[in-house]
Amino acid sequence: MNAPVENSPVESRLTAVVAISQTGVIGRDGDMPWRLSSDLRRFKSLTMGGVLIMGRKTFDSIGRPLPGRRTIVITRQADWSSAGVEVAATPEAAIELAGQTPAFVVGGAEIYRQLIDRCEEVFLTRVLCNVEGDTHLELDVADFSVLEQSRIPAGPKDDYPTEFFRLVRHRKSTP
Ligand SMILES: NC(=O)c1ccc[n+]([C@@H]2O[C@H](COP(=O)([O-])OP(=O)(O)OC[C@H]3O[C@@H](n4cnc5c(N)ncnc54)[C@H](OP(=O)(O)O)[C@@H]3O)[C@@H](O)[C@H]2O)c1
């Protein structure tokens, strides 16, 4: 018999949102290695009204809180702050701070690696390119089922075509 994965009632469901090249690249020089306007639009509509959980380096690359969403930045720097941003000293503290607001883990690699096992869903954009980069992520999709999949040709403001996947973690079986 299948049963839902158990979540603490005070914690929100966690969803990762990530764009990865065909060779596992997600970043370069502290920034994204591509310009993908259509993917940014989807990111906006998927995350609107929720809370974004990100590492301090990813926040630095964005430079400001994104409108319509709470922003939680994870940092080990006790004196770090930025206007309009909530600060967490650990990934665990970030989840607690998110409370019951739908929460999106939005990078970078350090934060994905620490929180992906807690994510029930992944919105994955496969960027159909082999760009060079200095930040990589291997996403083990074996624990997930594909709920949606669509191929998006490169629009006028996209560097590459992409393939979008909505992945949902397999339900754990009861013993
Ligand atoms: N393709 C995508 O979907 C995507 C998404 C997001 C980001 N990116 C890219 O990824 C790159 C950044 O990723 P990154 O891995 O270098 O950095 P990151 O994960 O964004 O941030 C790393 C920082 O988070 C803090 N941190 C990490 N683990 C922590 C812990 N356990 N407790 C407390 N603080 C912790 C530390 O901040 P302090 O140093 O302040 O202590 C650490 O330096 C950029 O190139 C960015 O553009 C790509």
From TrEMBL:
The lineage of its organism: Bacteria, Pseudomonadati, Planctomycetota, Planctomycetia, Pirellulales. One of its GO terms (molecular function) is dihydrofolate reductase activity. It catalyses: (6S)-5,6,7,8-tetrahydrofolate + NADP(+) = 7,8-dihydrofolate + NADPH + H(+). It is an enzyme of class 1 (oxidoreductase). Residues 13-169 form the DHFR domain. The keyword Cell wall biogenesis/degradation does not apply. This is Dihydrofolate reductase. Belongs to the dihydrofolate reductase family. Pathway: Cofactor biosynthesis; tetrahydrofolate biosynthesis; 5,6,7,8-tetrahydrofolate from 7,8-dihydrofolate: step 1/1. The keyword NADP applies. Its EC number is 1.5.1.3. Key enzyme in folate metabolism. Catalyzes an essential reaction for de novo glycine and purine synthesis, and for DNA precursor synthesis. PROSITE patterns: DHFR_1 (PS00075), DHFR_2 (PS51330).
